[in-house]
Amino acid sequence: MPDENQALNIINTESLINTANARLNDLTYEAKEYKAMLDEILESDTEFQEIDKEAKKQAKLRAAARQKALNTPGAKTNIDKLKETQSQLKEVKIALSDYLAQYVKISGSNQIEGPDGVVRHILYTAKLVK
Fold it and tell me: What is the domain partition of the chain in residue ranges?
C-alpha cells in the first residue's frame, strides 16, 4: 500500500508542478504584453521622449566621469580587492551550502544552533529549468 500512496503522491505533485509551471508561463507572457503596451505609450509621449533623451545624455556624462574616477591607482587597488573578496564570498557560500546539505543528511534535522545560541533553519530553493 505505501508504494501505491507514494505513486499517487508523485503523480499529484507532478500535476501541481505542471499546473504551476503553465501558470508561470502564462503570467510571464501577460507581463511581456503589458510591458510592450506601456513601451508604446512612452514612445508616443513627446514630453517623455525629450526628457528621456536629456537623461541619456546626462547618463553618458556620468558614466565618463565615473570611469575617470575609477581609473585612479587607489580605485584600481580597491577594485582588485573587491573582486577577490567577491570571489571568496562565492566560494564560501558554495562550501556552506555543501556543509548544510551534509549536516541535514547526517543529522536528519533542518535546524542548526549557531555559536550565538540562535537556531537557524536550513532552506533550499529549487528551480525548474529546461
Answer: 1-71, 73-130
pLDDT digits (tens, 9 = 90+) for 18-53: 899 899 999 999 999 999 999 999 999 999 999 999
* Rounded CA separation 14/121 (Å): 26
Residues 6+ apart with CB under 8 A from 29: none
Tens digit of each residue's pLDDT (9 = 90 or more) over 77-89: 999 999 999 999 9
| Three-class secondary structure of residue 122 per DSSP | coil
Quick one: which of 114, 13, 106, 103 has its CA closest to 124? 103
pTM of whole model > 0.85?
no
> In this structure, how many other beta carbons lie within 10 angstroms of the beta carbon of residue 95?
10
Asked whether the beta carbons of 121 and 110 are under 8 A apart, the reply is yes
Dig out the grid coordinates for 15 from the structure. 500535476
- Sequential DSSP letters for 19-84: HHHHHHHHHHHHHHHHHHHHHHHHHH-HHHHHHHHHHHHHHHHHHHHHHHHHTSHHHHHHHHHHHH
